[in-house]
Task: inverse folding
């Protein structure tokens, strides 16, 4: 985000604080510090003016948000009227009765317009428990000028070997250009999500069909050794602490030849107000190794109402506003179609204006090619691509991702990390009764 954009958002939030003070009632929303959420906060005065409902925001880094909302929902803390959660938490929390069903949204809202991949991932037994603010898969964003300079041409559907070759060819340490920027930051939804999605393409999986952890298998060793080798050759210094936002900043500053991450980032890397390389960005599907699975994930940042809120009606009003067709139109009118929240509604991809956006089709192709029910080469007992949809996963994967990040930081070997991952996961799964 540029300073200008940040100041604009801050100014809007200052107005909001004043508006909220005179509102009939105020709701509190926990959200992630991603660009689309920051942008939404800047428009919330429109909602308050329409409804008389004030909004207070608690905006947190991704790992902290997950910790805070999980603690609040499991302890019935009642701090928030709306939580920003995703496809991992929603079905589990909905099944536990921790979320208010969103089965009474208005006809104007048009629930049937939600992309099936998004609605399905945010439902339990056919009932929607969170509304997608935006949906995403992951794909390659790359510098077309650096690719051309390297004498290479990016395929629409590249292999990991090509990506590694291209990364090495584009790396220019003297000019602070890293051939590739990828997440190494600890956290199940940060670096953990990336390496899990990548491992699918190498034939790895978290568990076999008997829930036995699989970190002691060759595909996991292949995944980590390839990742570490490529990043040591062509990645930025300190990549062990880089997550989504850190890599976004590096790419926008012209310091990455390629970045494989959330499709939602496409609007930020192509925005000339924020990105120094906006006019030379191309897109391709996430890589594979020829085994039949690509490395793209499926996710939605979505808004949900925790059970027990005293402001259920007001919370649902906000969710309808923020995830509606009208909100998309509002952003398009003010900031252009490239900057609307993507990946949630069918009608967006049917819109002729949005079809002109250079990354629109590649985003949709990536989302539609991600199958949480069939994400691995070998069969598994779990649903999910960059996660396994069981309650124990978040805690286990947070620990495992810390071991992996220690490898990236040069503090232990791949073999040591995988042995620890196997032991951690085995112990936790046995304790949980699997």
Result:
């Amino acid at each position: 985000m540029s300073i200008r954009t940040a100041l604009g958002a801050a100014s809007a939030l200052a107005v909001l604080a004043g508006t909220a003070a005179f509102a009939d009632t105020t709701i509190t929303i926990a959200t992630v510090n991603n660009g689309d959420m920051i942008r939404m906060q800047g428009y919330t005065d429109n909602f308050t003016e329409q409804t008389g409902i004030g909004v207070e925001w608690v905006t947190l880094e991704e790992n902290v948000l997950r910790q805070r909302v999980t603690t609040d929902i499991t302890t019935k803390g009642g701090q928030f009227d709306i939580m920003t959660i995703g496809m991992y938490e929603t079905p589990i929390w909905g099944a536990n009765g921790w979320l208010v069903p969103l089965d009474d949204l208005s006809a104007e809202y048009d629930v049937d317009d939600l992309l099936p991949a998004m609605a399905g991932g945010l439902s339990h037994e056919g009932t929607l428990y969170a509304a997608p603010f935006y949906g995403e898969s992951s794909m390659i964003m790359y510098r077309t000028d650096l690719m051309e300079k390297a004498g290479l041409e990016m395929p629409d559907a590249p292999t990991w070997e090509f990506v590694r070759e291209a990364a090495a060819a584009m790396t220019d340490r003297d000019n602070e250009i890293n051939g590739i920027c990828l997440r190494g930051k600890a956290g199940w939804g940060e670096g953990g999500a990336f390496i899990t999605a990548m491992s699918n393409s190498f034939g790895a999986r978290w568990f076999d069909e008997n829930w036995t952890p699989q970190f002691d298998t060759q595909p996991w060793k292949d995944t980590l050794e390839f990742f570490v080798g490529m990043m040591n050759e062509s990645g930025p210094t300190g990549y062990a602490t880089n997550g989504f936002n850190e890599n976004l900043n590096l790419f926008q500053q012209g310091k990455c030849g390629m970045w494989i991450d959330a499709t939602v980032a496409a609007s930020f890397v192509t925005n000339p107000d924020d990105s120094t390389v906006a006019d030379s960005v191309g897109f391709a599907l996430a890589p594979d190794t020829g085994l039949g699975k690509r490395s793209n994930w499926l996710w939605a940042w979505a808004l949900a109402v925790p059970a027990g809120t005293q402001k259920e009606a007001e919370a649902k009003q906000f969710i309808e506003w923020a995830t509606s067709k009208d909100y998309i139109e509002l952003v398009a009118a003010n900031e252009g179609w490239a900057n609307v929240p993507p990946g949630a509604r069918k009608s967006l991809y049917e819109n002729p204006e949005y079809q002109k956006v250079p990354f629109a089709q590649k985003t949709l192709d990536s989302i539609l090619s991600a199958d949480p029910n069939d994400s691995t080469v070998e069969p598994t007992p779990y649903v999910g691509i960059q996660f396994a949809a069981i309650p124990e996963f978040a805690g286990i994967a947070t620990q495992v991702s810390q071991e992996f990040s220690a490898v990236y930081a040069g503090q232990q070997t791949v073999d040591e990390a995988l042995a620890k991952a196997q032991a951690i996961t085995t112990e936790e799964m046995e304790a949980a009764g699997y």
About this structure: The chain has 18 helices and eleven strands. Confidence is low (pLDDT under 50) at residues 1-22. The chain has two domains: 3-136+298-355, 138-296+377-431. The CA atoms of residues 11 and 42 lie 8 Å apart.
